[in-house]
Specification:
The chain has about 220 residues and is α/β, with parallel strands linked by helices. It contains 8 helices and 6 strands, in the order E-H-H-H-H-H-E-H-E-H-E-H-E-E. It is about 45% helix and about 10% strand. Strand 2, helix 6 and strand 3 form a beta-alpha-beta unit.
Length: about 220
């Protein structure tokens, strides 16, 4: 199959950081709603949505705009602190760097579309040297203008110059749903909690543990 462009989710797809997000969101959930948040809830109910939308859902819509902004930034500070403290340093998933090199060498347009905020994007670019492969203009992030990942994916398509024959790498239910909505083919990063949902998406061409050998799709 010839793909005109490639879009990557980031969290849980290029960086296996679900546990770090769950730790941060659990602390925030206790602060805003007095309840814990499980990994399964994060995977199936919240992952892939912008922070503000997650906070609205967690709080039942009771937070003010200033509180939404405060808790969004606080959650990401907690998350970045956790990533910085990973023993040996956090690394992209196996095969990611090699896939990026392949796409660059073969001039296949690619972008990142992520629900992360700009502070995290800057952190990721610095930590993982993403500017070796991605122009900042090809990184779509949560700037409070996107209602969902559908809008993000469509913007990413605009930025790489094509909406046809797109391959998207995703992990969350919401992300896979939105990728299917725009008519893309999907490579799903395997999660045990997602196994009941995979059969619902004929757009999924493969389910993988990481990105080793992912040049086989091109």
């Amino acid at each position: 199959m010839h793909y005109n462009g490639v879009i990557f989710d980031f969290n849980g797809t290029l960086l296996f950081d679900d546990a770090y997000h769950v730790v941060a969101w659990d602390r925030i959930a206790m602060e805003v709603a007095g309840k814990h948040l499980t990994a399964e809830q994060m995977d199936t109910e919240y992952a892939g949505f912008p922070n503000i939308e997650i906070l609205r859902r967690l709080s039942g819509g009771t937070l003010t705009p200033d509180q939404l902004e405060y808790y969004s930034l606080r959650k990401e500070e907690l998350y970045r602190e956790t990533v910085r403290n990973v023993p040996g340093g956090a690394k992209l998933v196996p095969g990611a760097n090699e896939l990026f090199d392949y796409l660059k060498e073969h001039e296949i347009p690619c972008a990142i579309a992520t629900a992360s905020i700009i502070q995290n994007i800057e952190f990721f670019v610095e930590t993982f040297h993403l500017d070796k492969w991605f122009d900042m203009d090809h990184i779509v992030y949560d700037n409070n203008t996107y209602k969902n990942k559908i809008m993000m994916f469509r913007d990413a398509c605009d930025r790489i110059g094509t909406h046809e024959n797109i391959l998207i790498f995703e992990d969350s239910l919401s992300g896979i749903t939105c990728a299917a909505e725009i008519g893309a083919s999907i490579v799903a990063i395997h999660k045990e909690t997602m196994e009941p949902h995979y059969p619902k998406f004929p757009q999924i061409i493969d389910i993988v543990e990481d990105l080793r050998g992912a040049d086989r799709y091109f």
